[in-house]
Design a protein that fits this description.
The complex is a heterodimer of chains A (about 375) and B (about 525). Chain A has 10 helices and 10 strands. Chain A has about 375 residues and is of the alpha+beta class. A 5-stranded mixed sheet of chain A has the order 3-2-1-5-8, with no helix packed on it. Chain B is globular. Chain B is about 65% helix and about 0% strand. The chains are: A alpha+beta (about 375), B mainly alpha (about 525). At the A-B interface, helix 1, helix 2, helix 3, strand 7 and strand 9 of A face helix 4, helix 11, helix 12, helix 13 and helix 14 of B.
């Protein structure tokens, strides 16, 4: 029994000292053990609070377990200890009720102060609307026309272990959110379908995206850089695959980026109008349609078009894809209310919608021979 | 408590006269005997523990390395969901109900539970609830995949067709729990032996009484919220759908109004168990009995006003956030009192370290670690960083596995000789304890680190920086799971009565009515109530 007790003591002490070890590694620049102090004043306050709380907890643990282990060592029968018979002491009991209470009050002050600062979203320099949907983020700059979807950029082959995994595996997106440093940026956060949660650890922001309601958060980033986060609320099948990347640029670089973005939107609009007048060939439609399908549709309907039985319907052999041509266009544009099928009218261009419909009507043995052109989608969209 | 030697002879006497024990399957199907029903509950919960554990192993196998290897994300989500549901409603809660059935009548000197037929019914509907839940996994589209917390609208508009089965199975579990709770309250209220005043009741009885009130208060709330999910999904209501005037966050308020007291339902009986075991092996009365009772009651009352600390990121007004932060911090005061009382009970005792005591000491240390990380989680501004990460997973597994489940194992070892009449196999027991203790910490401790470093919970695949720790966590998980097979072997051995015969008192320092009847406890006990002096 002696040996057992010693083993027990060793193991438990190990677990008390481990956190302290974690902290020392942290000071050596390792960040895979502890919270990050982040890049905003708020995030560093949060980090300090975390360390304060952590130290208080370690302190309490050391005292309580210390007394317990001393007792286990001294007051054991094998050492001939005779049991005392005391079983209450009003003084001691009052003391260990009041002392923790005082410690709590001392903790509550800095916590409340930081919390109030975090929730003060007033007087922001700019505002970005963040909208979650299964399984991507949409960013809209409220002071301009700039808006875009941001989706996972990691290849499926890396996830399926066919290619080697890259450095930012699962933490990389096609179009990151860009914000200026040194300005108070307010985020309005909402969702198009289920609840998501927008989390960027370096800003100490985690706010749920609730469908039908808008939440607020803010940040003021001190250092330019690339900051990565993830969706933090279970939102369905691909919850683990909707990362967040925010690039903080100096205000000047940010303005340049924004001007480029606005120009790009103009070009895209002109291109869209040009394509509207053109008829694309079946081959072109199929090639571009497959690309769109794999990027936007395959997560639910699966790359082979068979869906997940009982969860997401198949497109292969479905009545909509084989027969109902206008119904097919309608579902793509407007989604289907009461299901997970999203509206793609603002996610895809008209020619992309035309291409993906053509693809769905001709791939995997859906050999309808139908060709849907952008102009047809355009007419349907405006005819409603 | 006190002696009841006089009545003992009556009991043995009666035993010879009548009451033959029925044989075969009918004994178990039709039984109204609190000991039989307790045994059924305990075996059922152990089978569920192994089932839920198997699911945890699937989860840990997938997370052993980055990338998707073994299961697809949809099935992964079903595993996390059903693992949670089974462990909460199938393993921990029935285990405590089983212990209540076995022990409460013996501890208060009652012949049986007050409502024996309802007792039979409340057990026998449970296997059907879990059959329904498990069968949904084999349907097209799979079982529930929205987490055991089933947040709307993921569980309504966006869930698979098996959601109705999930709802009905939760309803049945709820009915079973409510019936069990009513039985406990009626038994304790009316059937205590003469002279057993409230403040003479054993701690396990006290904590279960308070737990039973919590159950009656919150299980109907759970029933309500699953029904709202059902009607939102199938009958076009809009409780949680903003487009119809509802609010998805309201779901979380209702769910956690059930969910937080539920947390204490799963830990208060554990406090009771530990308050029996530590005094026995310290050979010294429990320190601060009265303050233990008051602390338990305060925790139960506070548990009703802290629910929204699970929801700090949902976007509450800052005043609400502060209220729930302060209220949550307050819970650590009565919880601290309990821990201090246990340490003070050990102080200047004469301790020995039999396996129940080892589990009890591990409980005190590891539950306290879980409690301290809970205190950190209470601090709203920092909770924004911890919320929905592996830090939370580490926290609630410390309080539920090394808390609730370790206490159940401690209880099993402590009272097993009383139930079976033989001492358990001490070598196997020690192997079980040490293997569990080491592996459970390898399993859950590194979760604190990956959580702080930013790994969200409920993801089937993760960024590369989390890979090393996840490997260790998985190894710990497999080891902990396999260690439970030692426990299974030990239990089978004990139930087949292989081992040294146990005395009535079993443990040198044991006190209480259950230790004054022979081991194994006769089929009927205390038909004439003992007198408590």
């Amino acid at each position: 029994m002696n040996l057992l007790t010693k083993m027990f003591v060793t193991i438990v002490t190990m677990f008390i000292t481990l956190p302290t070890l974690a902290q020392s590694l942290e000071s050596e620049g390792r960040s895979d053990l502890n919270l990050r102090s982040g890049v905003t004043d708020i995030s560093s306050q949060v980090y300090d609070l975390h360390m304060l709380m952590f130290m208080v907890c370690v302190g309490i643990a050391v005292v309580v377990f210390g007394v317990m282990f001393i007792s286990m060592f001294l007051h054991r029968k094998s050492r001939g200890a005779k049991p005392a018979n005391f079983h209450e002491s009003v003084k001691v009991e009052i003391a260990w009720t009041v002392v923790p209470f005082i410690i709590l009050i001392l903790m509550a002050f800095p916590a409340a102060k930081t919390l109030i600062a975090m929730e003060d979203t007033s007087e922001a320099d700019m505002t970005v609307l963040v909208t979650g949907s299964q399984w991507k983020w949409h960013y809209k700059y409220m002071d301009s026309d700039v808006e875009f979807y941001s989706t996972l950029a990691t290849q499926q082959e890396q996830i399926r272990n066919k290619f080697a995994k890259g450095e930012n595996y699962l933490l990389e997106v096609d179009r990151p959110l860009v914000i200026p440093t040194g300005q108070k940026v307010r985020f309005l956060i909402t969702s198009d379908d289920v609840i998501h949660s927008w989390w960027v650890p370096d800003f100490a922001i985690k706010k749920d995206a609730n469908p039908g309601f808008i939440n607020e958060a803010w940040t003021n980033v001190n250092e330019p850089g690339v900051y990565r986060g993830q969706c933090a609320e279970l939102c369905g099948k691909d919850h683990g695959f909707m990362p967040i990347v925010v690039i903080a640029k100096t205000p000047q670089e940010y303005e340049e980026w924004k001007a480029e973005k606005i120009a790009a939107i103009e070009t895209a609009k002109a291109e869209e109008n040009r394509l509207l007048a053109m008829n694309m060939s079946m081959d072109d439609l199929m090639t571009s349609g497959q690309k769109v399908y794999l990027a936007k549709c395959a997560a639910c309907h699966m790359p082979n078009g068979e869906g997940l039985p009982g969860v997401f319907p198949a497109i292969k052999g479905s009545a909509v894809a084989l027969k109902d041509r206008t119904g097919h266009i309608d579902i793509l544009l407007n989604g289907r209310t009461g299901t997970a099928m999203q509206a793609f009218s603002k996610q895809l261009t008209l020619s992309e919608i035309a291409a993906v419909i053509t693809y769905q009507r001709n791939a995997w043995g859906n050999n309808t021979g139908d060709i849907v052109q952008a102009s047809e989608v355009h007419t349907y969209a405006n005819g409603k | 408590m006190s002696t009841a030697t006089d009545t003992l002879h009556h009991d043995e006497h009666d035993e010879h006269h009548h009451h033959h024990i029925p044989k075969g399957i009918k004994r178990w199907l039709l039984t109204t005997n609190h000991k039989d029903i307790g045994t059924l509950y305990l075996w059922f919960s152990f089978i569920m523990f192994l089932t839920g554990g198997a699911m945890a192993m699937i989860i840990r196998a997938e997370l052993f390395q980055p990338g998707l290897q073994i299961v697809d994300p949809n099935f992964f989500n079903q595993m996390t969901t059903v693992h949670g549901l089974i462990m909460v409603f199938g393993a921990v809660m029935p285990a405590f109900t089983g212990l209540a059935n076995w022990l409460i009548p013996m501890m208060i000197g009652a012949p049986d539970m007050a409502l024996p037929r309802m007792n039979n019914w409340s057990f026998w509907i449970l296997p059907f609830a879990f059959l329904i839940l498990l069968s949904s996994l084999f349907l097209e589209g799979g079982g529930p995949a929205f987490g055991w917390t089933f947040y709307a609208p993921l569980s309504t508009t966006y869930s698979s067709d098996s959601t109705a089965l999930f709802v009905f199975s939760v309803h049945i579990m709820g009915i079973s729990s409510i019936m069990g709770a009513i039985n406990v309250i009626v038994t304790i209220w009316n059937m205590r032996a003469p002279g057993m005043t409230w403040m003479k009741m054993p701690m396990f009885v006290w904590t279960w009484l308070i737990t039973a009130f919590l159950l009656i208060a919150v299980m109907p709330v759970l029933a309500g919220v699953v029904t709202m999910v059902l009607t939102d999904k199938y009958f076009g209501t809009s409780f949680f759908n903003a487009a119809g005037g509802g609010d998805p966050v309201m779901f979380q308020h209702i769910f956690w109004f059930f969910g937080h007291p539920e947390v204490y339902i799963m830990i208060l009986p554990a406090f009771g168990i530990i308050s029996h075991i530590i005094p026995t092996f310290a050979r010294k009365p429990l320190f601060g009995y009265a303050s233990m009772v008051y602390a338990t009651a305060s925790i139960a009352l506070l548990s009703f006003i802290v629910w929204a600390h699970h929801m700090f990121t949902t976007g509450m007004p800052v005043a609400a956030e502060m209220f729930f932060m302060f209220a949550t911090m307050l819970i650590s005061v009565p919880t601290g009192v309990k821990v201090f009382n246990w340490v003070a009970t050990m102080w200047r005792g004469s301790m020995t370290f039999e396996v129940p005591m080892l589990f009890a000491i591990a409980f005190v240390v590891l539950f306290t670690i879980g409690g301290l990380s809970g205190l950190m989680l209470a601090i709203t501004p920092v909770d924004f960083q911890y919320h929905d990460t592996y830090f939370v997973v580490a926290h609630f597994h410390y309080v539920l596995v090394t808390g609730a489940i370790f206490s159940i194992m401690a209880a099993a070892y402590y009272w097993l000789p009383k139930w079976t009449g033989v001492m358990y196999d001490n070598t196997l027991a020690k192997w079980h304890f040490w293997a569990s203790l080491v592996s459970v910490n390898v399993l859950f401790f590194p979760m604190h680190f990956v959580g702080l470093a930013g790994m969200p919970r409920r993801i089937p695949d993760y960024a590369l920086q989390f890979a090393d720790f996840n490997k260790w966590i998985s190894i710990g998980g497999f080891a902990f799971g396999l260690s439970q097979l030692i426990f299974l072997a030990l239990l089978i051995k004990a139930c087949r009565k292989k081992g040294e015969p146990a005395s009535a008192q079993v443990w040198e320092g044991a006190e209480g009515l259950e230790w004054e009847i022979p081991s194994p406890a006769p089929y009927h006990t205390f038909e004439t109530p003992p007198i408590i002096k």
